[in-house]
Amino acid sequence: MSVNSEAAAPGSGGDQHDALDTQDAHGVETSAHAQNPLAPGLPEHRLRRTDIDPRAAKRAERQVSLLFAIGALTPIIFFIGYVYIPNDKLILIPLIGTTSASNLFLGLTMGLGLFCIGAGAIHWAKKLMPDVEEVAERHQIRGTDAERDLAVAQFNAGVESSGFGQYKLIRRTLIGALAATPLFAVPLLKDLGPMPATLLRYTIWAKGVRIVTDVSLAPIKPEDIPFGGLVSCVPANLAAVEKATGTLNARAKVPVVLVRLRPEEIRSQQGKNWDYQGILCYSKICTHVGCPTALYDQKSHHLLCPCHQSTFDLADSGHVVFGPAARSMPQLAITVDAEGYLVAQGDFTQPVGPSFWERG
Ligand code: FES
Question: 136 and 277: one domain?
Answer without folding.
Answer: no
